Amino acid sequence: MYNKYISLLLCACALTLGSCNDWLKEENPGSQNFDDFFLSGTVAIQTVNAAYTPLAWEYNNSYFSEWYFGDIASDDALKGGQDLADGADAYDIDNFKVNANNTICLDYYRAKYQGIARCNLALQQVAKMDPDDEMSQSRKDCLLGEAYYMRAFYYFQLVRIFGGVPLVDFVIDSSDRWQQPRATAEEVYQHIIDDLLHAEELLWNKSQYSAEDLGRATKGAAQAMLCKVYLYQKDYANAYTWGKKFVDEQYNTEYRLCNNYAENFTLAGENGPESVFEIQYMADPTSDFGEGFGFTRGTFTTVLTRPRWSKLPIGQVGWGWNHPTQNLFDEFEAGDARREYTIGQPDAESAQEIEVDYLGSVYHNRKTSYQEIDGSFPSIDHHSRSPLNYKLIRTSDVLLLYAEAALESGKDIDAAKWALEEVRSRARANSTAGALPAFPGYRGYSDNPADLRDAIRHERRVELGMEGHRWFDLVRWGIAYDVMDRDNGTYGRNESDEARAEMANFIKGKSELFPIPAEEINLNPMEQNPGY
Q1: 286: exposed, middle or buried (C-beta count within 10 Å: 0-12, 13-18, 19+)?
Q2: N or C: which terminus of the chain carries fewer CB neighbours within 10 A?
Q3: Gap between the Cα atoms of 87 and 454, Å rounded
Q4: Do residues 286 and 271 make contact, with C-beta atoms less than 8 angstroms apart?
Q5: Alpha helical stretches, state H, 53-178
Q6: Helices 103-126 and 137-162: crossing angle, nearest 10°?
Q7: Are strands 275-279 and 390-394 parallel, antiparallel or unpaired?
Q8: pLDDT tens, 196-223?
Q9: pLDDT tens readout for residues 485-518
């Protein structure tokens, strides 16, 4: 797995070769010469490995995992933590009070551009290299596909949080190339699509990788992302095309649904049959407090989201962030076992502890807190770090994207129902007998497109709950205000009085995006998002 063993190499590119006499004769002594360093297939592989690494970063000056936006900003979760004052920037994200000095936004933004810079380096240099004993032509093509995929993924992460951002698809090798204009969101999405189309042509299928390389980008991952990105663009015809391609070429051959839903969220289930793309972490006995980006290779998310129960021994107790809401709890149908594996609940004694309750929620995110199927909490090598991977794309996610595309494109209503039923049938097999009937036999649905749309959206919420998808779904569906607004939203007006007291109103045309960090605008002057 790419960052289970990676040694960062980019600093080595600064080394110059040759004797002192040769250096004195150089036209630009002391300058970098990339071509002198990129001479072997091993270096090419390591360079692409390095392009994955910023995806795993979660801490610099603040914690900045994507679930701060995907879960906490949404109706799925409250900030959590020790109290209201714990994590002021996360509190602002939770309550629509974010400003341009938010450190979570700043660190997230900068980490993604570090990843983009590494992808640009790989695409520039690996493309010029000749195959050798360590890198066949096929492997070289796949490496380039991985770099295209990762660049697209980093830009996708940026554009759906900040909107249009500067497009940089080259190595910045001089100070006069540092400042770049802000592109529109449409231009960024087109760049993402172009990169993903390149990636899909070049990447291998999952089965072509050796076991130690599982976790790399695959052809199936590129197809899944193309379906998703076209949905964000409301280009339903192309979304349907790529969703169908994934189903026809990948489903039940390269990927399938796990028999047991809970297996997806255990250490033993990492890179399993349902995993299309996930962030790779490993056990690490060190912490990176005060060290900045990428000092360790474990995840902070485990300790952040484990509950603050005093009954848990040292090495198992958490910090209580990302509390699932009662609203999410109530979204699950009676007998749906997915709720048990999504939302952790304290025992009666622990629930009385003052630090366990955050604005009326005593729940924790079971999917990221590194629990066994039986509910136990394994010890971790360092209290702040865990080896549990983070799922970014699962097969069930792709099936539901395909269902949405098939419905909204008008191309295949039966395919939409089929994909929805694939997900529900697995959940049904894991749940109480008689629970989770097929569409339309639940929640008062009738067999019409409007109710099928609601059913697919409901299924995305319960199937993917607390996996960082919900906020982005609400925004791309255009219903974030209708759900989230404190006074008029179906969630906002029904949340607990304690939580509502902290909320600001959702402002249409502003709150769908987060502000471009002020420090970045100072370095690279560009227009701020509306309202900030």
Answers
A1: middle
A2: C
A3: 35
A4: no
A5: 67-70, 88-94, 103-126, 137-162
A6: 160
A7: antiparallel
A8: 999 999 999 999 999 999 999 999 999 9
A9: 999 999 999 999 999 999 999 999 999 999 999 9
Q: Across-strand partners of 336?
A: none
C-alpha distances out from residue 357 to 89, 299, 303, Å: 20, 24, 17
Q: For the CA atoms of the chain, what is the radius of gyration?
A: 23
- What residues are paired with 166 via a beta bridge? 182
In angstroms, the CA 242 to CA 356 distance is: 44
Task: Quote the CA–CA distance of 54 and 66 in Å, as a whole number.
Answer: 12
Q: List pLDDT tens digits, range 357-374.
A: 999 999 999 999 999 999
The single residue listed with the structure tokens 């072997």 is: 40
Query: What is the model's pLDDT at position 290?
Result: 65
CB 338 within 8 A of CB 430: yes
**φ and ψ of 154, to 5 deg:** -60, -45
Rounded to two decimals, the pTM is 0.93
Please give the distance of CA 325 from its chain centroid, rounded to a whole number. Answer: 20
Instruction: Report the length, in residues, of the chain.
Output: 532
176: which 2 tokens?
């006069």
pLDDT digits (tens, 9 = 90+) for 301-359: 999 999 999 988 887 899 999 999 999 999 999 999 999 999 999 998 899 998 999 99
Residue 107 pairs in a beta bridge with none
Q: What is the pLDDT of residues 233-244, one digit of tens each?
A: 999 999 999 999
Give the SS3 label for residue 253.
Answer: coil
* Nearby residues of 116 by Cβ (< 8 Å), 6 or more positions away: 151, 154, 155, 168
Q: Is 136 left (phi over 0), alpha (psi -120 to 50) or beta?
A: beta
Residue at token pair 């993924």 = 153
In this structure, what is the dihedral angle of CA atoms 266, 271, 276, 281, given to the nearest 10 degrees? 80
Residues 6+ apart with CB under 8 A from 89: 62, 98, 102, 103, 104, 105
Whether 262 and 373 have beta carbons less than 8 Å apart is answered as yes
Q: Which of 52-61, 266-275, 295-304, 505-514 has the lowest mean pLDDT?
A: 295-304
Residue type at 103 in one-letter notation: T
